[in-house]
């Protein structure tokens, strides 16, 4: 990598890299991603090991604090999350100001951006002060985003809110808030909670993707954690980022509705036409298997089997994957399944409706946002993110009074 810090501003030198595809915007100790070889590690730990041995809360701790917690620290972190699980009554009113048909992501970003009003001591827009209260702010952010998503689901689906329980682990508490009816317990299957843990863990961080870079960019202006995360959630709402798993499910459903087993669709996907792309395949960075796709693909089989679900969309997905992996078009372009290829099928099995998929991604990505914001806030040599551009507009010209304009 070339360090261009010395070439800044006064030299007149501007490196043009459309969409920053090959620009390192920061130094980071959080996540290592090697797209060529399909490697993903958080704080040095391979994603495969974390997926097998860890859970979402422990991995969140690792990503945020840099080390796996010991028993005492894990307990303390869990207690902090539990303490901040409930959503303030006044905040419900913010939610209820939205029509129930509004986008859940718009509701989520609005609620997160309102957090500084409820926790002014955690969001002073002064790095030094905000870092002193960082542990509490991080717990508020992770725990509330999870509870907000459940509350948004209940609100948009016309259901009464279910409040968190102090004695439930993080993912079980989410399932309780989503699916319990008042006075009637949600029957918690350990498989569902395990699948949810895995899904969130696999989304916990992914280097400088669009929304995480947004968090860093906003944070670089000394904006507080909640403001930065709210901006990240807006970036995540775009269909090219957080919405890709919805596109995969729509594609699988339409293949199913047309009575195709995937064969006809694969042929169409090779046309080079963007509208018939094989959604869930290809990635801006991976030129190999997305390691998360391998894990989630295998988990799909186990989870659906354990839950006794035979989802025809999973069969279609498997057919598509097999066909693509043997097809020269996909092989020569290094197009492999990405995490979105199977994540929707798992969410559907858990009972999460498609309109909530991207909000689930936001819960999962919260630790990554928090850790990246912390890196920005803790960097004594940090500077505001301020990229340049290559100007291609009009050259200098003189002002023309309105009456003289053609
Ligand atoms: N299906 C069919 N052809 C594809 C696909 C696909 N999914 N993806 C890329 N191609 C083809 C392109 O048509 C192009 O072919 P050409 O060389 O003959 O012109 C070639 O592969 C390279 O395509 P690019 O668009 O340059 O690849 P890039 O790396 O820029 O794009 C992207 C990556 C946007 C993810 C793309 O692969 C895609 O659209 N995939 C489907 C959408 C998707 O799954 N997005 C989720 C990404 S993961 C995430 O955001 C969490």
Automatic annotation (TrEMBL):
Pfam families: Citrate_synt
Alphabetical list of PROSITE patterns matching this protein: CITRATE_SYNTHASE (PS00480)
Family matches, as SUPFAM superfamilies: Citrate synthase
Catalytic activity entry: oxaloacetate + acetyl-CoA + H2O = citrate + CoA + H(+)
GO molecular function: citrate synthase activity
Protein's pathway: Carbohydrate metabolism; tricarboxylic acid cycle; isocitrate from oxaloacetate: step 1/2
Top-level taxon in the UniProt lineage: Bacteria
InterPro entries named in the record: Citrate_synth-like_lrg_a-sub, Citrate_synth-like_sm_a-sub, Citrate_synthase, Citrate_synthase_AS, Citrate_synthase_bac-typ, Citrate_synthase_sf, Citrate_synthase_typ-I
Active-site residue numbers: 283, 340
Record-level GO BP terms: tricarboxylic acid cycle
Protein name: Citrate synthase
Organism: Horticoccus luteus
Taxonomic classification: Bacteria, Pseudomonadati, Verrucomicrobiota, Opitutia, Opitutales
């Amino acid at each position: 990598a070339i360090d261009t810090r010395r070439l800044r501003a006064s030299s007149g030198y501007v490196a043009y890299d459309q969409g920053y595809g090959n620009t390192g915007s920061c130094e980071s100790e959080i996540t290592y991603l090697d797209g060529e070889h399909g490697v993903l590690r958080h704080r040095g730990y391979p994603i495969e090991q974390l997926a097998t041995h860890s859970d979402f809360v422990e991995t969140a701790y690792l990503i945020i604090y840099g080390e796996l917690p010991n028993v005492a620290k894990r307990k303390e972190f869990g207690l902090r999350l539990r303490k901040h699980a409930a959503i303030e009554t006044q905040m419900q009113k913010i939610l209820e100001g939205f029509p129930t048909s509004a986008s859940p992501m718009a509701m989520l970003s609005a609620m997160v951006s309102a957090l500084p009003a409820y926790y002014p001591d955690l969001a002073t827009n002064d790095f030094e002060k905000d870092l002193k209260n960082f542990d509490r702010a991080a717990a508020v952010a992770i725990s509330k985003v999870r509870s907000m998503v459940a509350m948004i689901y209940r609100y948009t689906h016309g259901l009464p809110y279910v409040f968190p329980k102090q004695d439930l682990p993080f993912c079980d508490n989410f399932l309780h808030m989503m699916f319990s009816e008042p006075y009637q317990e949600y029957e918690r299957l350990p498989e569902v909670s395990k699948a949810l843990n895995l899904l969130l863990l696999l989304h916990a961080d992914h280097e400088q993707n669009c929304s995480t870079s947004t968090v860093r960019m906003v944070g670089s202006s000394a904006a507080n954690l909640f403001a930065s995360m709210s901006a990240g959630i807006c970036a995540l709402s775009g269909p090219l980022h957080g919405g890709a798993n919805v596109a995969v499910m729509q594609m699988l459903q339409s293949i199913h509705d047309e009575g195709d087993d995937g064969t006809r669709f694969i042929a169409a996907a090779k046309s080079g036409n963007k509208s018939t792309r094989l959604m869930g395949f290809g990635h801006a960075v991976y030129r190999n298997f997305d390691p998360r796709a391998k894990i989630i693909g295998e988990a799909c089989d186990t989870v659906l089997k354990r839950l006794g679900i035979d989802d025809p969309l999973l069969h279609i997905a498997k057919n598509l994957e097999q066909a693509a992996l043997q097809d020269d078009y996909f092989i020569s372009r290094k197009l492999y399944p990405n995490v979105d290829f199977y994540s929707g099928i798992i969410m559907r099995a858990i009972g999460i409706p498609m309109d909530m998929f991207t909000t689930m991604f936001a819960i999962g990505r919260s630790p990554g946002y928090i850790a990246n914001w912390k890196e920005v806030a803790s960097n004594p040599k940090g500077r505001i993110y301020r990229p340049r551009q290559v100007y291609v507009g009009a050259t200098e010209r003189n002002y023309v009074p309105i009456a003289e304009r053609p």
